[in-house]
Design goal:
mainly alpha, 8 helices
């Protein structure tokens, strides 16, 4: 074993394979809970499941302060983005809308869920902004299309909705990846300065 690699901050703070697998499973479980809950007129169910998953993640995170900031930023971005999609007339949410014109909680909670993958199972996107943009441009619309197929949301104008989603996620995914990377680097510098 390379002693220098073993003592580097990245090696000590890198998630284990088990953590990566559990992170993927948690994301999938939370996504289905939100989408199926909304599709079956129980949007609170998915929001509650995601709240628990995020809380567990934060409680067990290597750098919880980083994760809290990342989740908070993703929630703000999510509220704004989802509300813009709603206001643009591209997407409708049949259930869960509490305030007219504002995206429902269940879809916003998916942003918190996405945030907990950025330093874990999606950590491989760091430093690969073009890949992150393509990943977002393809993965974002596919996730929404899955939600449409399961009955959680409606594409009012499918072509325009998919284009808007692809462009938006091509920008927002790398943005969140950069934010995750910067928060991690800042935390690593602080940790190194107190040693």
């Amino acid at each position: 074993m390379n002693v220098a690699a073993a003592s580097s901050p990245d090696h000590r703070t890198a998630p284990s394979r088990l953590r990566l697998v559990l992170n993927v499973i948690a994301f999938q479980f939370g996504w289905f809970a939100c989408v199926l809950g909304a599709a079956h007129d129980q949007p609170w169910l998915g929001s509650a499941v995601v709240a628990v998953l995020v809380a567990v993640h934060l409680a067990t995170a290597i750098r919880p302060a980083v994760e809290v900031r990342l989740v908070a930023a993703a929630l703000v971005i999510g509220v704004v983005w989802e509300t813009l999609l709603l206001a643009g007339g591209w997407i409708e949410y049949p259930t869960g809308v509490v305030w007219a014109g504002v995206a429902p909680l269940w879809i916003v909670m998916l942003w918190a869920l996405f945030a907990i993958t950025l330093n874990s199972s999606l950590g491989w996107l760091k430093g690969r902004l073009l890949v992150a943009a393509v990943f977002g441009a393809v993965g974002g619309p596919l996730a929404y299309w899955g939600g449409v197929r399961l009955g959680a949301l409606v594409f009012v104008e499918p072509l325009f909705a998919v284009i808007a989603l692809a462009v938006g996620w091509a920008v927002l995914t790398p943005l969140l990846v950069v934010l995750a990377q910067r928060l991690e680097r800042r935390a690593a510098r602080v940790e190194a300065s107190v040693r």
